[in-house]
Design brief:
Radius of gyration of chain A: 25 Å
Order of helices and strands of chain B: HHHHHHHHHHHHHHH
Low-confidence stretches of chain A: none
Strand content of chain A: under 5%
Distance between the termini of chain B: 26 Å
Number of strands of chain B: 0
GO cellular component, one term (chain B): plasma membrane
Number of helices of chain A: 14
Shape of chain B: globular
Radius of gyration of chain B: 24 Å
CATH architecture of the largest domain in chain A: Orthogonal Bundle
Largest sheet of chain B: none
Pfam families (chain B): BPD_transp_1
CATH topology of the largest domain in chain A: MetI-like fold
CATH class of the largest domain in chain B: Mainly Alpha
Organism (chain B): Phytoactinopolyspora halophila
Membrane topology (chain B): Multi-pass membrane protein
CATH class of the largest domain in chain A: Mainly Alpha
Number of domains of chain B: 2
Largest interface: A-B, 126 and 136 residues
CATH superfamily of the largest domain in chain A: MetI-like
Oligomer: heterodimer
Structural class of chain A: mainly alpha
Protein name (chain B): Carbohydrate ABC transporter permease
Distance between the termini of chain A: 59 Å
Chain lengths: 321, 305
């Protein structure tokens, strides 16, 4: 396909949907009034249909396939799930996923919170926030390229200079340059750092909005009680923005579980860096092991559920108060 | 960059700053030296990696490969050659993939927004059986990781012969965006005063008329918020792209191609650095111009990831 063809296809697709929308609206407009059910049906059916075919059916199918072997022909019961807790390489995948979900959300939230408080109502607040927020706009692939360059390693030989800033700093400090990406388990934490770098902006934005929403009289009351600086932060700011903190933590946790781009781009899951989301891709779409891939996808889903339940519970509590 | 400043307008009532007088505000600086140092360290850590790669993308190939970007300050040489090669050189030809990314992204934003607008209106303002149950079900679908749907969906596309075209990407992105889109737009539509709708009803307007003449104009900001969100999501996506288009095919987007380059040409930093910024320039521009809407969407609460 050449460029023109691609763009024509794009315009046609949009026109097709615009036409379908127009048709629905026109037909519904002709229905006599008070026939809410017919009209509502026409309004929701396109979306429901797409969700049923594109999300619900495939999800059920994946659940089903997770009990079958690699070619999805022979029923194997729970063998795929069992493998995850028995095979050494898959145990490492689970361990790494745990590292990710324990480290990334908390660190990103703490950094976002500290930064939001530090720059709050200063002269350069807008500019300072934009700096931290910018990584949100770029892809995780782009972020990975940026950090791969930071971690870049060149052999420690006469006449060869380091091009990665991290190794250069080591050299300046008198250490030997490291092959960071080959060095487990350090490499996993260096990958986690990339996600923290991306997500801190999200944490900062939401928390900054929450901080600005703290009623002024609460702050004043704290002042009268002699709270300043760290104490003000500990006893007034943090308790006041608790609901926002929970939203941020749970949102980043869910995002962390699903992140695949960073591991895929940086190491491809080699050198003991794989996580469930990446292993799913490797097993299903690279190795063609559909049964195990499906089981990994199910595990991903199951890991998300407790976080969501916790989030919903906390939100309910906040509402009641 | 000052667009962030407009953040406080995005929601009424949560900006507690108006009680602080302008002079008090001006007086407040980063008071303690410790606080300023911490803020500066974070700011540097967050900008230096990008800056290093950005500067490198303009350095001659020989320089990038043999010494660090900090050497540029003692030996400043700039060139656009890397960009020329990465965009049009036969080894990478990123310009083709830029077109692919555009062709994938625009329908993947327009289609879900249109479908979600209709559904959100029905959920917000029409009466029909099982409405609330159905809405909760759509809302709950947000938490389903898309990984769970990919392989069977790919099978469907192969069976019906759509594989290798843009359709799998458009349909997949649209489907995965719907739960969040319906939820977000429903919430904004619910906030429109009942009196407006009732008044229109009394004047004899049906749902279609109310939808087109009252609802659409009023929730334009919400639509914009979702569009920015979805645009960044689709443009920056790697998983859906790799699953349905691979990394070098006729329909593969920039992200997939660059991720592949990192694997196959991991030391060709003159190509990787320029390539990364080719992929970043459009989302960053969209982001900077429409940041207000993006922040609004973010604050309206989403668990998509």
């Amino acid at each position: 396909m050449d460029t023109a063809e691609k763009l024509i296809q794009m315009v046609l697709a949009i026109a097709l949907f615009a036409g379908a929308m127009g048709l629905i609206l026109m037909l519904v407009g002709r229905v006599r009034r008070r026939a809410d059910i017919v009209q509502a049906f026409a309004f929701i059916v396109p979306a429901i249909l797409l969700l049923a075919i594109g999300l619900i059916y495939p999800a059920l199918r994946t659940a089903y396939q997770s009990f079958f072997d690699r070619t999805t022909e022979a029923f194997v019961g729970l063998a795929n799930y069992q493998a995850m807790f028995e095979r050494d390489d898959l145990l490492i995948v689970l361990r790494n996923t745990l590292f990710w979900v324990l480290v990334a959300p908390v660190t990103a939230t703490v950094i976002g919170l500290i930064y939001a408080v530090l720059v709050d109502r200063t002269r350069f607040e807008a500019f300072a926030k934009a700096l931290i927020f910018m990584p949100m706009a770029i892809s995780l692939v782009g972020a990975s390229v940026i950090w791969k360059f930071v971690y870049a390693h060149r052999p420690d030989q006469q006449g060869i200079e380091q091009i990665g800033v991290l190794n250069q700093i080591l050299v300046w400090l008198g250490f030997e340059p490291q092959q960071f990406m080959l060095n487990a388990p350090l490499n996993t934490f260096l990958l986690i750092a990339i996600l923290i770098w991306v997500q801190a902006g999200f944490a900062m934005t939401v928390l900054s909005a929450a901080i600005k929403a703290i009623p002024q009289d609460i702050v004043e009351a704290g002042r009268l009680d002699g709270l300043y600086g760290v104490k003000m932060f500990r006893y007034v700011t943090v308790p006041s923005i608790r609901p926002a903190l929970i939203v941020v933590l749970t949102t980043i946790s869910i995002a962390t579980l699903k992140v695949f781009d960073i591991v895929r781009t940086m190491t491809g899951g080699q050198f003991e860096t794989s996580i469930v989301a990446n292993e799913f891709y490797t097993q299903s779409l690279v190795r063609g092991n559909y049964g195990l891939g499906a089981a990994l996808a199910m595990v991903l889903f199951v890991m998300v559920i407790p976080i969501v339940i916790y989030n919903v519970r906390q939100m309910r509590k906040a509402d009641i108060r | 960059m000052s667009a962030v400043q407009s953040t406080p307008e995005t929601r009424e009532g949560w900006d507690g700053t108006e009680t602080v007088s302008p002079s008090a505000r001006a007086r407040k600086r980063l008071s303690s030296p410790g606080a300023s140092t911490a803020a500066i360290i974070i700011a540097v850590l967050w900008t230096l990696p990008t800056f290093g790669l950005f500067l490198s993308s303009f350095r001659p190939e020989e320089e990038i490969k043999n010494n660090g970007w900090w050497n540029w300050f003692t030996d400043p040489q700039l060139t656009l050659e890397n960009y020329r090669e990465v965009l049009f050189g036969s080894r990478t030809e990123l310009s083709t993939y830029v077109i692919n990314s555009v062709a994938i992204t625009v329908p993947s934003v327009v289609i879900p927004v249109s479908l979600a607008l209709l559904a959100a209106y029905a959920f917000a303002w029409m009466k029909f059986p099982f409405r609330d149950t159905l809405f909760v079900a759509v809302f709950a679908l947000q938490i389903v990781p898309i990984q769970i749907a990919l392989v069977p969906l790919l099978q469907i596309f192969v069976d019906v012969g759509l594989n290798g075209t843009f359709w799998p990407l458009w349909i997949a992105h649209s489907t995965f965006a719907l739960p969040l889109a319906v939820y977000l737009l429903h919430n904004f539509m619910r906030d429109i005063p009942v009196e407006l709708i009732e008044a229109a009803r009394v004047d004899g307007a049906g749902h279609v008329k109310i939808f087109g003449t009252i609802m659409l104009p009023l929730i334009m900001p919400a639509i914009a918020a979702f569009c920015v969100f979805q645009f960044l999501w689709v443009w920056n996506d790697l998983l859906v792209a790799l699953t349905f288009a691979g990394s070098t095919s006729d329909v593969a987007p920039l992200t997939a191609r660059i991720a592949e380059l990192v694997g196959t040409r991991g030391t060709e930093w003159h190509l990787l650095s320029a390539g990364a910024f080719v992929a970043m320039i459009i989302p960053v521009l969209v982001f900077l111009t429409l940041q207000r809407f993006f922040v609004r969407g973010l604050l309206a609460g989403s668990v998509k990831g």
